[in-house]
Amino acid sequence: MARYEYDGKFWTIVRSVSVVTITQGKLGNKGRTSTLHHATPAEAIARHDALVVEKQREGYRLAETATTSAPADAGTEPPTSDDAHGAALEAAIADDPDDAQAYAVYGDWLQRRGDPRGELIALQLAAAAEAARPGAKPAKSPRSATTIAVGKHLAKHAPRLLGDLARLVRDLRDPAAPPLIWGNGFIRRVELASEAGRPLADAVAEILAHPSGRFVVELALRATAPTDAAEVVAKLAHRAPASLRELDLFARVPLKTLDRLWPRVARLRRLTVTAQNFKLGDLELPALERARFLAGSMSSEAIRSIADAPWPVLERLEIRFCGRYGSSKADFHDLRTLLQRDDLPKLTHLRLRGAPFAGAITRTLIDAPIGDQLQVLDLANGNVSPADLQHLARHAGAFSSLKEIWLHFDHLTQAMQPALAGVAKHVLSDARAPVDMLDEDLRDDRPGEANPDDDRYDGIRE
Questions:
Q1: 20 to 30 Å CA-CA from 18: which of 91, 283, 376, 443?
Q2: Residue range 437-455: mean pLDDT, rounded
Q3: How far apart are CA 401 and CA 397, in angstroms?
Q4: Is a pLDDT exceeding 50 seen at residue 105?
């Protein structure tokens, strides 16, 4: 039996096979009991969970649980049935890791079993609702009372909520501090980098195998040690959770084994791959909305993989062919298939940075189906000739939706800018952009940091 209290009132609920019994009233009184009969246990479970969510929305919070069960001859279900219900609740979260109601129902299920993650779910859902409440006044403290309660709960139950993972956490009371960022009662985001004496792949596997890492949604990994990258990919190919929706993978060495990863992360919505170069293989990520492929020197094979992959819902695509002073092995023929496709209905942001053939890209997009739907076209650090710019100006009408175009500053003179005014609302020189330091980051042993002033390029967490 679970007992909830709010505003001087109590509410209890218990299910036995297909019967749900509710008792409610004022604190200190016996209350009024009602019994709901259902045709099947499954219907009773659904009704029970729906009633719990309804009460939690009204403000009721769990006060206590009783784990005693009726005698066996009373017809109660065996533990295996309840375990199956728990598995169904977990599957619902994996299917939609942003569904607060699914977490609420699962949290109540956990609380009835004395699992501290259940109360943590309720606390974090309450904190999120408090922050999102229309007209809510900012708290005097940067952390609200509910958020502080979350931190206290984490610290109090750290042995069970984290176990050995506590060694990775600097402040147990801060649920938003990397490397383990909590959300809805579980580790939601993981940010890890290679460290001497600690293989990155082992740390990732340990987190994903922990009960609190069951529903990781976002994973950002920097593999700077020589052997870490391949080992991390191998671990993820076997252990990436079904809830994973965002993956940011950085490696200072070539990545040659990514094709085995894609079947395991088929539900990804956002993906960033950064390395000297990489082999993508057959990309099958039908749910992907934003993709970034950043290379020190992009290969022809990788571009062909991107160009041929199905992208039914892709909205933003960024490719870095090379740095300003580097070179790319990919050529225009590798990319042309992508530019001429007519099955990219959602694509609005196209960033093709460092393309030696940026002029050919502009000429192709003039007649391409996607040209009319693009809102942002970024050809920063690409090779565009004055003739290419003049041709682009003459066909400004081909880009009716374009709001922003970035071009290499060498030929984007003051005299040329008025001619290009009809192409996009904003015609921007890449001289105004933050300096691209990726090549240095790929070579340097020091961990790179995002430029806080760089709001031009859309990161994975925009």
A1: 91
A2: 58
A3: 9
A4: yes
d(CA 322, CA 356) in angstroms, rounded, equals 9
Mean confidence (pLDDT) of the chain? 86
* Per-residue three-class SS string for 96-139: CCCCHHHHHHHHHHHHCCCCHHHHHHHHHHHHHHHHHCCCCCCC
Residue 153's pLDDT is 94
Write out pLDDT tens, residues 125-171: 988 888 877 765 554 445 678 888 999 999 999 999 999 999 999 99
CA 280 to chain centre: 20
Spatial contact of 311 and 344, defined as CB atoms under 8 Å apart = yes
Q: In what order do the strands lie in the sheet with 376-378?
A: 180-183, 186-193, 218-223, 246-251, 270-275, 290-295, 316-320, 349-353, 376-378, 404-407, 426-429
Residue 184 one-letter amino acid: N
- Strand 270-275 relative to strand 290-295, pairing: parallel
- Residue 273's H or E segment, with its range, is strand 270-275
Query: To which residue do tokens 């020589």 refer?
Result: 226
Contact between 391 and 362 under an 8 Å Cβ cutoff? The reply is yes
**Residues forming beta bridges with residue 19, ordered by sequence position:** 16, 37
List residues bridging with 186 in a β-sheet.
183
Over residues 436-461, the mean pLDDT reads: 55
pTM across the whole model: 0.79
Look up residue 237 and give its DSSP letter. Answer: H
With contact defined as beta carbons under 8 Å apart, do 306 and 280 qualify?
yes
Q: How far apart are CA 106 and CA 12, in angstroms?
A: 17
Q: How far apart are CA 435 and CA 338, in angstroms?
A: 28
> Quick check: 223 pLDDT over 90?
yes
Tokens of 204: 């990732």
30's tokens: 């016996």
Residue with tokens 């565009």: 384
* CATH numbers and ranges of domains, the chain: 2-114 (2.20.140.10), 319-462 (3.80.10)
Is residue 368 within 8 Å of 339, Cβ to Cβ? yes
Whether pLDDT at 68 is above 70: no
State the Cα–Cα distance between residues 230 and 286, nearest whole angstrom: 24
Instruction: Give the span between the Cα atoms of 304 and 319, in whole angstroms.
Output: 12
**Residue 275 identity:** A
Q: What distance in Å separates the CA atoms of residue 306 and residue 273, rounded to the nearest whole number?
A: 12
pLDDT digits (tens, 9 = 90+) for 17-56: 778 889 999 988 888 989 898 887 777 777 887 788 788 7
